[in-house]
Amino acid sequence: MFETHPTFIQPENENIKIWRYLDFTKLVSLIDNRRLYFTRSDKFDDPFEGSWPRPNVEARKYIPTDLPEEGQKKYLDAMNKMGDINKNWPRYMAVNCWHANEHESAAMWKLYLKSDEGIAIQSTYSRYKKSIIDDEKVFIGKVTYIDYEKDGIDASNILGPFVHKRKSFEHENEIRGLISKWPTGDETLDFSKDTIENGVQIKVDIETLIEKIHIAPNAPKWFTELVDNVVKRYGYKFEIIQSQLNNDPLF
After folding, report:
1. If residue 142 lies in a helix (H) or strand (E), which one and from where to where?
2. pTM for this structure?
3. Measuring CA to CA, which residue among 127, 140, 98 is closest to residue 210?
4. What is the mean pLDDT of residues 121-127?
């Protein structure tokens, strides 16, 4: 189920369009299983996924002025170990990514599809939230893009790094869903075991989630017909739209 969290910033307009670009097999998996796939965070290509920016890391070197002298060494020892501990967290987070945009994106088509046989699910932020019907707790919000050399983030919550990315990814304009599965032991955290293998399947109401399905710009006619037939076979009536991005210009 969707749950609010102070670390996850909500968009001003919850009816903003969001898009998920994927290949045909992933579409079939979605409508067949009625589940959205949340990828384990450390499986993404971005090595900064879940990491803290430099100002936060540098701040660990400074002892709080109100800390008694007898506790200062213990404090610094704990801060020195913080980086090694933080490297573990991406293994226990799973993420589902969407692109926020009022229009389909030529860049996203090229970035996320390996062939012309691809589709884009059109939804809205509001629909995404309402579609989550799984018992698993799901946080959803906007990703904030920062300069990791200069900008710090609120260090009060361990989830902070998972809603921040480097400015070089700003074109993604990402809306992110996240679940966490903490590695709890008897009395403490146990990083010797994984709680997520590669990802997590989250149950969704497909008819709430999907508003329209867009076909890739250069997709052949047979592919459009195939998507339409498969969607109908599963009993859905989503509007299937051929992308107009590569239409001939009028001049």
Report:
1. strand 139-142
2. 0.91
3. 127
4. 98
Output the six-digit token pair for 249. 């210009």
What's residue 10's pLDDT?
Answer: 96
Q: How far is CA 215 from the centre of its chain?
A: 22
Place of tokens 């508003």: 211
Q: What is the helix (H) or strand (E) element at residue 181, kind and residue range?
A: none
CA distance 108 to 172: 8
What is the C-alpha to C-alpha distance for residues 80 and 217, in angstroms, rounded to an integer?
51
User: What are the CA-CA distances from residue 157 to residues 5, 78, 149, 161, 162 (Å)?
Assistant: 10, 17, 20, 9, 10
Instruction: Give per-residue pLDDT as tens, 126-177.
Output: 999 999 999 999 999 999 999 999 999 998 899 999 999 999 999 999 999 9
Distance of alpha carbon 208 from alpha carbon 224, whole angstroms: 22
- What region, left, alpha or beta, does residue 62 occupy, with left being phi > 0 and alpha being psi -120 to 50 degrees? beta
* 3-state SS, residue 139: strand
CA-CA distance, 170 to 145, in Å (whole number)? 6
Which strand (E) or helix (H) includes residue 94? strand 93-100
Tokens for 214? 């867009």
Q: Are 2 and 138 in contact (CB under 8 A)?
A: yes
pLDDT tens-digit series, residues 45-99:
999 999 999 999 998 888 888 888 878 888 788 888 888 889 999 999 999 999 9
Are 126 and 205 within 8 A, CB to CB?
no
Q: How many helices, marked H, and strands, marked E, lie in the chain?
A: 7, 11
- Give the C-alpha distances (Å, rounded to integers) separating 118 from 28, 54, 230: 12, 38, 14
